[in-house]
Amino acid sequence: MKLLLEKIAFYREKKDYELQLIKWQYENTKQSLQPINLLKISLLEKIITTNPKNYLISIVIGLATNFLSNKIKSNPSNNPIKNIATSVLKLINK
User: Fold this and answer.
1) Does residue 40 sit within a domain?
2) Which residue, of 1, 24, 75, 89, has the fewest CB within 10 Å?
3) CB-based contact 31:37 (threshold 8 Å)
């Protein structure tokens, strides 16, 4: 009988410990699935897996081409050179 009571106590402690682990895992998963954390993780993975300088340069180039194409689009004209430049910037930006 004593052995049976010891085993019951052991399994109750084990159950409580495993329940705490499950709660901890749930909170960690919930925290990691928040949109801001997903964004942080994906950006960090992108920076780590690629050369950070090249990655930052490509971001700057993308922002610059987007800015220029928006500037050119905001001032519509019949000038074919501006229209061609806008088209080229749109292609580069994609």
Assistant:
1) no
2) 1
3) yes
Closest Cα partner for 68 from 41, 87, 44?
87
Residue 11 lies in a domain: no
The torsion angles phi and psi of 58, rounded to 5 degrees, stand at -65, -35
85 closest CA partner among 63, 61, 69: 69
The answer to whether the CB of 68 falls within 8 A of the CB of 92 is no
**Alpha helix (H) residue ranges in the chain:** 2-32, 35-49, 52-74, 80-93
Report the domain count for the chain.
Answer: 1
Average pLDDT on 26-50 reads 78
pLDDT tens readout for residues 40-64: 777 777 766 667 677 777 778 777 7
Q: Would residue 91 count as lying in a domain?
A: yes
Structure tokens at 60: 């700057």
The answer to whether residues 47 and 55 touch, using CB atoms and an 8 Å cutoff, is yes
